[in-house]
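testing teh design pipeline on a random one, pls ignore if ur not involved
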């Protein structure tokens, strides 16, 4: 159950709360004033704090102020025999979870404590999830090529400029797009990804712009397209070089006029979307071949960011190894394995044609098949391409 700190200058109140809460299987510690309560808080962790407002030396409001400075997430339930509406409002404004008047309604007290614990657990789970997501999408590396990319992201992200991200397959173009979104003013809005290469050409228009019921044989109901879903946020057109020419024409109109129309409808829909695009192709060569529109190229390439191949940033391999081994071992429920220096050096000699995607797969293979400490011999046995 929960660990609870009770701060109250009345011994009878402290002892009564202790007896009741321990009967409910909670662990309870007591403090007779705000100063002692803060000392206990700094020395230990608590799930909930019950704190009297009126106390000598340091009152409950001062305790709230100190906890706020500590950036504490621990819910504080204020209790007082001298309370009124103004006092309750002030306590809530200062960050109290709830306010309960004396004499205490014990049933309400227990329900409030349970709700406070559930809220704290939810906050904790959310923080853990955010850390995991952040770790998954970390941009790892301190080599000169990757630092140039990070600098570009920091400069460009706060703007609404359209960005064309280029680079080989597996270099992390999607990662750059996600960071451009996360560091922008649109971070709280949708990030919608479209893999243009994975969608059949006859469906790409419906996917991007939506369709009305009955627009074609399988259109059994109205459907919003990706541009509408991304309204207010960012749309990421991955592998845009594989988009058909008719779809390119409609995307161009959307970029020029900030409007889209669903398949089967002549109604214009206003959208506010930042467009990021990526390709592993040389679009200027595609323009020369007649497979990509030059006017669309100029629309999407206000800013160009080239993501370097892993072979061009091998100095980052030690950091990448440490990053992926931690994530993979966590996913597999294993104790993190260490890599010897000669194992890292051997990894740096490999020709990484599949870039980061291939590198991660190799690290996972080494963790599963290698020894407790992964050596050069393991890398030679399991990381090199099969003959």
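output:
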């Amino acid at each position: 159950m929960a660990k609870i700190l009770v701060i109250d200058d009345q011994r009878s109140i402290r002892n009564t709360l202790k007896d009741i809460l321990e009967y409910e299987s909670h662990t309870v510690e007591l403090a007779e004033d705000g100063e002692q309560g803060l000392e206990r808080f700094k020395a230990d962790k608590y799930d909930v704090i019950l704190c009297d407002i009126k106390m000598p030396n340091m009152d409950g409001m001062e305790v709230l102020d100190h906890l706020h400075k500590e950036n504490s997430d621990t819910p504080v339930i204020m209790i007082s025999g001298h309370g009124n509406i103004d006092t309750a409002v002030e306590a809530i404004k200062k960050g109290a979870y709830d306010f309960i008047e004396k004499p205490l309604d014990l049933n309400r007290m227990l329900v409030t404590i349970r709700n406070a614990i559930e809220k704290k657990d939810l906050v904790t789970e959310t923080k853990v999830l955010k850390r995991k997501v952040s770790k998954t999408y970390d941009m790892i590396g301190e080599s000169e090529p990757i630092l140039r990319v990070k600098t570009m992201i920091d400069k460009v992200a706060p703007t609404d400029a359209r960005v064309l991200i280029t680079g080989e397959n597996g270099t992390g173009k999607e990662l750059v797009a996600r960071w451009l979104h996360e560091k922008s003013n649109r971070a709280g809005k949708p990030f919608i990804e479209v893999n243009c290469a994975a969608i059949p050409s006859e469906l790409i228009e419906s996917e991007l712009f939506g369709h009305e019921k009955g627009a074609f044989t399988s259109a059994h109901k109205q459907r919003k397209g990706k541009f509408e879903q991304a309204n207010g946020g960012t749309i990421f057109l991955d592998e845009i070089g594989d988009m058909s020419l008719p779809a390119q024409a409609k995307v161009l109109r959307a970029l020029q006029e900030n409007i889209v129309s669903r398949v089967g409808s002549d109604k214009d829909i206003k959208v506010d979307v930042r467009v990021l695009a990526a390709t592993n192709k040389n679009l200027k060569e595609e323009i020369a071949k007649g497979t990509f529109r030059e006017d669309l190229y100029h629309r999407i390439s206000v800013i160009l960011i080239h993501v370097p191949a892993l072979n061009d940033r091998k100095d980052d391999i030690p950091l990448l190894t440490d990053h992926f081994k931690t994530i993979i071992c966590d996913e597999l429920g294993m104790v993190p394995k260490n890599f010897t220096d000669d194992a890292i050096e051997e990894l740096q000699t490999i020709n990484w044609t599949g870039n980061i995607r291939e590198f991660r797969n190799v690290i996972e293979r080494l963790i599963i098949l290698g020894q407790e400490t992964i050596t050069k011999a393991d890398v030679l046995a399991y990381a090199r391409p099969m003959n």
